[in-house]
Amino acid sequence: MVFEIGVTCTEPSFHPLEFANALTVTAPGVTDPDISSNHRTAGATIAVIDESDVKIDGTVLDCASRSYVRDHFTCTVTATVSNGGDYGPAVADVLLGLTGPTDCALSPTGATRHEDQQVALGTPTVVATIWDVTCRDRSYHDFAATARVVLDHLHVIDPDATNNDGAATDRVEVFELVDLSIAGIRITCSERQYQTQDITCVSTVTVANAGPATAVQTRTVVEFTAPAGCTVTPTGTQQDTRTLDAGTSATFTKTWTLSCSQARRHTFATRATIAADEPHPEDVNDDGLADLICHFDTKKTGLTCNSTTATLIGRTVDGLRFEGQDDVKVTGC
């Protein structure tokens, strides 16, 4: 004989079931001489399976918008995980990853795993990992984040694996300090007191890169001014573009032709300004002029890695007292 028994379970798991059979004689006038064989028990273990549609609802990558070469900055990867049912809460692992350019070092390395997340029905779960990043080269640096959720529940399956992944990107501008300057400038002209026309003047300019950034593309703008009554050719400014390595300088000339209407002594002037001609070298004071560079014993100044300003107090050779304050960046920390 075959008996069918309906069983309903509310939790996914291994469910041990036991079936007890008993045989009883019910015919009138008939007796069973050995009732000890009328009972038998049988068992079975059934794996009860349920479904949880865990998924990545959103992935966010938040990095510092800008940094400097070899400085530390952070990138945070955040993932929002939800459970579309039917079963919940479901146990899941969330894997977060970050990749970047080859000149950048990431800590931790590889993906991070957030284990045993309880992903409830109707209540999103948010997980995040913070990476410490340093980059060696100045440039735009593009980073990419990945997120993945994987069920870690023995008897719960994910009916849709296509929504288990997420991604996001962010860009960091990495700058490098550079000290560009006009190290020297002079003007020489062919004019004499008895000449008023066809005057030739030459601006001789020396540009320098004191570093630390090297191979910096530069653009120098040279101006020439003359008094009223004199026509200058070319009009406007002249430019010089070149790449300067750290610790090097270069000298170039620009020629101007003048015609003056009056026979008298004329005073001419020239001026030059240098600037980086690429996005990520950052001039220490952005004036393109020769800078005063002072070296101090950092330990004696009292400056620390957390210092952001410094004050300099002193006297000139004439005995005049001066005081100045500016933002500082302590390197080597």
List keywords for this structure.
mainly beta; 4 domains; Immunoglobulin-like; 59% strand; nine-stranded mixed sheet; 1 helix; 333 residues
Based on Cα principal axes, name the global outline.
Answer: rod-shaped
Structural class: mainly beta
**Shape-level CATH architecture of the largest domain:** Sandwich
CATH fold label of the largest domain: Immunoglobulin-like
CATH superfamily of the largest domain: Immunoglobulins
Intertermini distance:
84 Å
Radius of gyration: 40 Å
Please describe the biggest sheet, giving its number of strands, its sense, and whether it closes into a barrel: 9 strands, mixed
How many beta-strand segments? 21
Instruction: Report the helical percentage.
Output: under 10%
List the helices and strands and how they pair.
Blueprint: E1 13-22, E2 39-48, E3 50-63, E4 66-68, E5 73-86, E6 90-99, E7 104-107, E8 112-119, E9 125-135, E10 139-151, E11 156-157, E12 165-189, E13 199-212, E14 216-225, E15 230-233, E16 238-244, E17 248-260, E18 269-276, E19 281-283, H1 298-301, E20 309-315, E21 321-327
Parallel strand pairs: 3-11, 4-12, 12-19
Antiparallel strand pairs: 1-2, 3-5, 5-9, 6-8, 6-10, 7-9, 10-12, 12-13, 13-17, 14-16, 14-18, 15-17, 20-21
Fold and architecture overview:
With 333 residues, this protein is an all-beta fold. It has four domains: 13-50, no CATH class; 51-176, Immunoglobulin-like; 178-292, Immunoglobulin-like, CATH 2.60.40; 294-333, no CATH class. Helices cover 1% and strands 59% of the residues. It is built from one helix and 21 strands. Strands 4, 6, 8, 10, 12, 13, 15, 17 and 19 form a nine-stranded mixed beta sheet that branches. Strand 20 and strand 21 (321-327) form a beta hairpin. It is rod-shaped. The termini are far apart.
